[in-house]
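Q: Hi! First time doing this. I have a protein sequence and I read that you can turn it into a structure. Is that right? Here it is:
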Amino acid sequence: MTLLRFVEETGSTNADMLALVEQGVPEGSWLRAGRQTGGRGRMGRAWESPVGNLYCSTLVRVAPGDPLPHTLALVAANAVHALIAPLCAGQARIKWPNDILVDGAKIAGILLERFGDAIIIGIGINVTHHPTGLDRPVTSLTAQGAQDAEAGALMERLAQLFAHWLGIWRAQGLDPVRAHWLINAHPTGTPMRVVQPDGEVVEGAFDTLDRQGMLILRLANGESRAIHAGDIILT
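A: Yes, that's right. Below is the predicted 3D structure, encoded as C-alpha cells:
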C-alpha cells in the first residue's frame, strides 16, 4: 500500500524521509511538501522551492537479489518522464543521470541518497513556476501549456508510475528499465561535456548505458569511456 503524507513547509523532504526511515516507515511511503526551505539538488546545490511546484520523496528498501541500488535512478527517471511527457507541448527527454528536459530546458530533477538498506529518492518538478536568470534553460508544466496541473494530484499519479517501474525492476531486472530509459533519453550521438566530481572535464558523444546503468561516452578518438558520476552539459 502506498502511504502519502503532506506537510505545508519543511527544510527538505529527503531529510524528513530519513527521519521516517529511522522510525521504520515502510517502502511505498511518499512525503510531499508545499514548500521547501532547504531543498537540495545534486552536488549539494540549492533547489528553489516556490509554492505550487512538486517536492516529494519516497523510499525503497533494497533486498538481496535486487538490481544495483543506484539503478533506481533509472526507475525514477522512467516514472517522472511518463508523468511529464503527456502534459508538455515540447518533447520531454531524460538526461543522464537524473534530469528531465523539455526541448532542452530542465523541468525536473531527481536525487538519490542511501541510508543502510533504504534508498531515499527525492523528486522535484517545476509545475507552476520555474526560476529565471540561470545559466541554463528551465521550464515548467504551466509554461509548457499544461492545464490545471496540481502538485498533489501529480504526486499520486507519480507514486503509481514509480510502483509500476519498481515492480519491473524487481521482477525482470534492469534490462527492460534500461531499454525504456534509452528510448526516452538523449539520442545516440548527442554531444556532451561531463564535469566529473574531481573536476576533470571529458567531452564526447552519448553512446549508450552499460548493463549497470553507467553512461558510455564516445570520445573523439573513437574510444569509449564509462562515466560513473558527473554533471552533464549537452553541447
